[in-house]
Amino acid sequence: MKKIIASVMALGLIPVGLAGASPLAEIAPGRAQIDANVTIGASLKGEHKGHTVDFDGDSRYRVGGIVGIGDNLGLEYIYSAHEGDDDASVQSHQVNLVYQFNPYLYAFGGYVRNRAEHRSYEDNTNGYQVGAIGRLPLGKTTPWARFGIGNTITQYEVGVGYAMTDNWEANVSYNDSKYKDFSGDTDMKTHGVNVGVSYKF
């Protein structure tokens, strides 16, 4: 418990968010992971009735983590936030169950709540997603990939982690997400590069 509290306090001092890292090597009760990343080179676009508007994009963040709740079974939370020009933004909350088949392959599924805003427009959507995660440990380096699809979201992410110690890992990844089915036939699309660290315990 002291280890968990200390890690949360330490990561609270980092001015970035959480999520976007290689998955736990073993999902089990008592195992957990927190990932701290900042998104750079972000892009935010809106699609409305077949027309695309480019809102550029500010450097933003994603927050989340995973905790083992059973043998090969984990509970994951991810929050992502993106902002652009003209008061445009999109946020997403994702809660997933993650099942580990072996050291290389995982499946996940869960609930998604998205929110889009642009000037006086704002709308929320609720939905589901399913997907898969793969990892390939190569010594201290772990390439990984993640893909998810649902009625209100489609996303993929590829990245690589480097183990600095037994608990700390440096990460870089590329994420592309589409948040769908807002009112008025509106979708929001984002992509960017995430850099940061992970703490696994």
Report on the architecture of this protein.
- The structure is a single chain.
- 5% of the residues lie in helices and 69% in strands.
- A hairpin with a 4-residue loop joins β6 (88-100) and β7.
- The protein has a single domain, classed as Lipocalin, CATH 2.40.128.
- The N and C termini lie close together (11 Å).
- It contains one helix and twelve strands, in the order αββββββββββββ.
- The chain has 201 residues and is mostly beta strands.
- The model is unreliable at 1-18 (pLDDT under 50).
Relevant terms:
201 residues, mainly beta, Lipocalin, 10-stranded antiparallel barrel, 1 helix, 69% strand, globular, disordered N terminus
What proportion of the residues is helical, as a percent range?
A: under 10%
Number of domains: 1
How much of the sequence is in beta strands?
over 45%
Structural class computed from helices and strand pairing:
mainly beta
Number of strands: 12
Give the CATH level 1 class: Mainly Beta
The largest sheet has its strands arranged as 2-4-5-6-7-8-9-10-11-12
Low-confidence segments, ≥5 residues, pLDDT <50?
Answer: 1-18
Order of helices and strands: HEEEEEEEEEEEE
Any idea what the shape is? globular
- Number of H- or I-type helical stretches: 1
Could you give a short account of the major beta sheet?
10 strands, antiparallel, barrel
- Alpha-carbon Rg, integer: 17 Å
What is the CA–CA distance across the termini?
11 Å
CATH superfamily: OMPT-like
CATH fold-level topology: Lipocalin
CATH architecture classification: Beta Barrel
| Average pLDDT score | 88
